[in-house]
Amino acid sequence: MTPDRLEILIQKLFDSRLTEDERIEFNSLLKASRSARDQYRKSMSLHAALMNKCDDGSAAGPFAQLADRPVAERRKIAPFVPRVLLAIAAMIVVFAGLNMIWSEPKAMLTGGEFEAVGGAGALTPGRIKAKTPFEIHRGSLTLTYPSGAEVTLEAPCRFQLDRKEALTVAHGRASVHAPPGAEGFELDTPGGKFIDLGTRFGVAVGSDGSKSVVLTEVFEGEINVETSESKTTRLRHGESRALLSNGNDTELVSDLDSSPIRLSRGVSSAPADRDNLALGKPVFSPGYCVRAHGSIFPPENVTDGRLNDSGVPGDWSFWLAPDGEDGEFTVDLLESQEFSKISLQNTSNRLIHDRGVENFEILVSEDNKIFSPLLEGYLPRIDYLNREDSFPFHDFTFSPVTARYVKLVVLSHYRHPTPRRNDPHSGGISEIRIFR
């Protein structure tokens, strides 16, 4: 854009000669450039001053005295009337555009440790750009809104700011706290919209491989769940639902795969521990649990750095053996490493309180063929009433050994405290860490 081009368009506006394409071009220039808006305002002021200068030096303007002037003078003044109207209309368009810019969401990135896809340059502390897709693949972050609403997002997560008090989560896990005064905050997902009524609630947005699966639970207060323009469901403290897409409709269910829907309160994901030899290393197993609606629990989950049974359908952070089996898995450190401590975090299967490891054995090998026993151990059941607590790690130390492969064999596992008839069960664990 050149100043001459802008001046030409302004003059055409005053002369009522703007074409439709030029009008679109003109408004685009004004929205894109502050200097262009400043030049336009100066031109408008000058134009208005010239129009308002009457022959007698008064400032009444042509509209107020047009009817009282001689016909000859009216003919001179009249052509300015549509020009002024067009100028006012253009200013309305400009201010509408500016209002759109000024009313962008003002959410601030206020905390967290995370790694963003493509680098964290676009996600730095301060105001977050609207209408821009973001993705984090490790850690968590917190967004704070002008109303006081706070949203914590846990990786892996894809999200976007839409409106001043709204957020869209396409995939991942979110925890929302909307204190008094922040009522009305909206969280959009592929399965439906969650409207806060002054509360704390959590959502997990995932997929069963073909359609979205959204889990939600209300920790305090109430929320409205909108699954269509005509369907709204009120959820209150302690209530939870899964939103399952069914064609053009969404079904709300209180049980998923015969288990009650529960979410850990808040989200947690540890920053990468570079001293952990197992972090991100390959893991293989004779089998793992696969259920409907994206509930799969492969062995590589035990070295992904995500803790406390977090995740979403299709991307849970812990490993479960096939139903009815204790199970085992083997971590490949990719080369021989010397280590003297193994740290384990048990699972409670999304706070259903079953499937965790009770007794186990660890063996090591250089060739994945001949294994030598290293230690036997015990893990207590995870059974917290306060679901904000992080799951504990239990450390097992020993004299330094050198090996490439580390195998954990489950000798016994926990079942549900009140087993149901034909209740599926197996061994499982959330995370393994290996240290020099």
UniProtKB/TrEMBL annotation:
Organism: Luteolibacter algae
The protein, known as: Discoidin domain-containing protein
One Pfam assignment: F5_F8_type_C
Domain named F5/8 type C: residues: 272-427
Matching SUPFAM superfamilies: Galactose-binding domain-like
InterPro entries given in the database record: FA58C, Ferrdict_sens_TM, Galactose-bd-like_sf
TM spans (from-to): 84-102
Annotated keywords: Membrane, Transmembrane, Transmembrane helix
Lineage top rank: taxon: Bacteria
Matching PROSITE patterns: FA58C_3
Taxonomic lineage of the native organism: Bacteria, Pseudomonadati, Verrucomicrobiota, Verrucomicrobiia, Verrucomicrobiales
